[in-house]
Amino acid sequence: MKLKQLEGLLGSLEQFSHPKIELEQYPTGHHIASRMLFSAENSFGDIGDKVVADFGCGCGTLGLAAALLGAEHVIGVDIDVESLAVASANAEDLEVDMEFVQCDVRNFGWRGQIIDTVVMNPPFGTRRKGADMDFLSVALKVASQAVYSLHKTSTRDYVKRTVLRDYNASSAEVICELRYDVPKLYKFHKKKEVDIAVDLWRFVPK
Ligand SMILES: C[S@@+](CC[C@H](N)C(=O)[O-])C[C@H]1O[C@@H](n2cnc3c(N)ncnc32)[C@H](O)[C@@H]1O
Questions:
Q1: Number of domains in the chain
Q2: Distance from the CA of 50 to the center of ligand 1, in angstroms?
Q3: Which of 22, 86, 97, 194 gives 20 to 30 Å between its CA and that of 48?
């Protein structure tokens, strides 16, 4: 599938109608999501014919992109039942298969097929400190091949040091730096959206 076609399909997906701020529910835009998954597949071969898990899948954007790019099986994990219902409807609309698991990622106990690749846009940890690193810690235990994740650029040194020292990563590479619009989370933010710098990472588990 061509990049533009993937971007178009992701742009048609239903997203959070009443986002829960405490869960940091903001969608990955179709421009970023399509490029994230497209480079995971075309630069690294981490998607096609792989078992892919989407942690904090929300309305399913990243996992569905993996399915459209030929993943063998995709598992979407989220704590929020309402998001999973939207993700499931999105999968039906796209006519692709995706399995859904409702749980807190920190308690994810998977007994199914070996997961090759985890893709995720975790909470940045603005509402619950450390949420971003909790996702990374579990993803690096579960994935056998690679983890793709978005993190605030301001945390770059901390992320790199922690995953290599404590989280079972053998390598941690920033693939690119992006501008990301998040809805304002605090009353003192004057603008409706805040534009922040975000790193797209690729981690390889040991
Ligand atoms: C930034 S949104 C990303 C949503 C979606 N992956 C996307 O890219 O559009 C973060 C997602 O993580 C979910 N989430 C937050 N904390 C969670 C937890 N502890 N366990 C599982 N999911 C969680 C939220 O419900 C939300 O869907």
A1: 1
A2: 22
A3: 86
